[in-house]
Design goal:
19 helices; about 1000 residues; 5-stranded parallel β-sheet; 6-stranded mixed β-sheet
Length: about 1000
Amino acid sequence: MTAQTPPFRDSQLPFAKRIDDLLSRLTLDERVAMLHQFGPAVERLGIAAFRTGQEALHGVAWMGPATVFPQAVGLGATWNEELVRRVGEAVSTEVRAMRSRDDRVGLNVWAPTVNLLRHPLWGRNEEGYSEDPRLTSAIATAYTRGLRGDHPAYWRTAPVLKHWLAHNNETDRATASSSVRPRVLHEYDLRAFRETVEAGAVAGVMPAYNLVNGRPNHVSPYLAEQLRTWTDQDLLVCSDAGAPSNLVDSEHYFDTHEQATAAALLAGVDSFTDHGTDSAQIVERVQEALRQGLLTEADIDAAVRRQLSVRFRLGEFDPLLDPYADAKDFDTPAHRALAREAAEQAIVLLKNDGGLLPLIREGTSTGEDIPSVANTPTGEGTPGGEGPRIAVVGLLADECKLDWYSGTLIHRSTPLEGLYDRFGADRVDFAEGVDRVRLRTAEGTYLSVPRADDAREEVRGAAGALDPALLAGCTDLPPLTTDDVGTELALIDWGGGVLTFRAPDGRYLSVAEDGFVRASADQPGGWVVQETFRLEPRSSREGGHGNGHLLRHIGTGRYVSVTADGVKVADENPVVLEPETTERGEDAVAHAAASADVVVVVVGNDPHINGRETEDRTTLALPAHQQRLLDAARAANPRTVLAVTSSYPYAIDPTDLPAVLWTAHGGQAAGAALARVLAGDVSPAGRLPQTWYASDADLPGLLDYDVIGGRQTYLYFEGTPLFPFGHGLSYASFAYADLVARVGEESARVTFTVTNTGDTAADEVAQLYGRPVSPSVPRPRRELLAHRRVHLPAGATTELSFELPLSAFEFWDVAHGGRRLEPGGYELLAGASAEDIRLSATIDPAGTPPAPRPVLERGLRSADFDEQRGVEIVDRTKRSGDAVTPADPDSAGPPSAELVYRACDFGPGARSVTVEVSGEGTLELALDDAPAIAHLDIAPTTGPYAYTSVTSPFAASGVHDLRIELRGPLRFAHVGFSG
């Protein structure tokens, strides 16, 4: 280091000392400016501008063309950590390569999403890995390791986990509170984050929009009390977009933005994503909070230090030493091959009765078996060669769908294209199954799409955008008109009456900012989708019983009208329309299916419609349009394969279907992967990462986050699933044997063998579950302890070994506020899914016996209940602590709730009880099943956080269950007893 080189530029010094030096050189205004997502350059020190946040969930998103891998839920379905690590490595390499030519691309990547897939109607189901915390953390850890890179000091990218915490609803997502009891918090929601952070490849987290126990996640005490105790590294906490302002504007949690910004910073938020690229408002709020004494310079420094720690690890201040600075690999053959491998490994074979799959070459007239296509010398189909005649039908049969967090496709493979390439175009027939319609006006004219010979072949988002929500619609094409003939449009009903219309040139009807309707979109998409419509009976708007329909544009809420300048959406003068069907989709499907040896029906969702960020689904049912197509295909040809391509589970009826597969939207190679699995080139080995329920009746309420009390996920669900967690079939068969389990002082070692008893090489996903034999509290029916995906040639055997820490058998003991290993037997279950158990053994590790609650010494925190009825957990104060309150009543009368605390030790005797409460109402206390022995009336307090202590006589001794009944709008925080 020369005399002129400041210490923060000295690569020989530890990062901590360099950060200290740099902080000392930055002015307060410069440090405050760094708190916004778009931190400005500090030119006098030669420091570049920096932004947090680059979406990279399954490829580089929003910044133009990039390799697109399967959706996150599809990566979860691979159950393959090594594969997912390689995907993360490829994605981060492309981030680096793209940044070298576009400095808008950031190195602080906002991925992966580790929210657990607790509820399958969650609109963002596609973004998570699994309903199971252990599988989620295993896949997330693999992805973050790939994103980070393997250099000991410098990181390829800096991953931020999303979305802290207990976030599984888009409905009212910025105002709804998740009521999370301590056991669920520690055993379920925190666990996926904790195990991933402890693995050491995480740079930070992003809080979610929602509230947990009445307190917004952006002021969560768990950031300090939990997250930052899990690692010695500085973790960067980045707010979600607009969430800092939500603390005042929608949540009304604070009176002023200065209070809200200060509270978020003190809770642990380091980077504020608000008001797009304009940092002025956040900077002003922080400066005003400083002036009001709500913050100190030390608070600013703590946040900036954590930001700088990430920037140093990314090599920003050591460009010559950064091992990733010259990364150029982008859209390489290796990345393309990896995208196909990932898509193949994500495919789950749900059913295969009668060996319909893999597809074999059969004579179309005699049905005589001939060798499988997979056994041809090259393993590739020959166009025009022998093989089954395949009909591929369905609304997704010729689609390669993207989602909100996808990049722009460079390569594209649909199921139809994959089957063409694999079997030859002359062996494959296609019917999309759209309804073809003309829209007739009351005047007898028809909506018409004008010719646009000079229309640009433009793909939405191809140029990249820091915020694709701001991308404008296309206005350089002529709007629709009316004439005597009209244009035949492809109509798709995506469910719930949500429709899209596509012109003959493949463009979807869309509405731009000027309100005109044009055939201009390559696909439905955008933050507010402008390509969806709803046909509504005329009477629904105008009253009475008029004929015809009105066409409402969902994105604007306005109705389609005809003006002199063209067709547009407006608040007045809607045009009355009647669709005239020229071809029913099921007729085309039935025609194609009837002449085929095998029909493949491809159903599923468009990730921008009916289930996406901002919108939860309302049902598990397959949309009626697609059910019609499936029924038509099955009626025409019993040799029907159902291929579900979706972001989430459906409640389908597989009874009359010989073969069913599921895959998430598989990215750029989805079609090729599906074709190879159907042909038998690849034996499917994906496994379900979440339970597929048989009907909506099996589901809990969307906002019921109590997986224990609500008996949710495979861990607690007591019904019969449609397909269980971990389920997936193979073209081979596997035998399990020789389970041996030995317990040591700190771990249990489990071994067993798996043998491929089939005649083809294949992968198997061996799964190991555990459960206590006689638990003292509700525990999972079975819980995933370990798994391994292994490849076995035909006839081969392998021995699998797992070392399980005894902590894997612990639960959160609310009686004493910590984890406890309960003594007694634990059953170990090895098999192919949560319900397909092949082997079992029992171990008996030494544990800690239960002890009653020492209520005379410590009292009880209200949220530490064992059981409850009608309770919602809320915030005790705006900074920390929990209280409970009766949930909003479903019927008339004051709200009421009941709490049960098991095994409370009142010692030689308690004589009085004191409760800390706010609000107004009554509390009654009873022992065991006896009548109440204490009644406390709570006079109204001045507000929800104005707690008062109320004391009453109370006589109890020994150990009893305590029952507390709450009536009225009160908040109960703590109960204490004195002798």
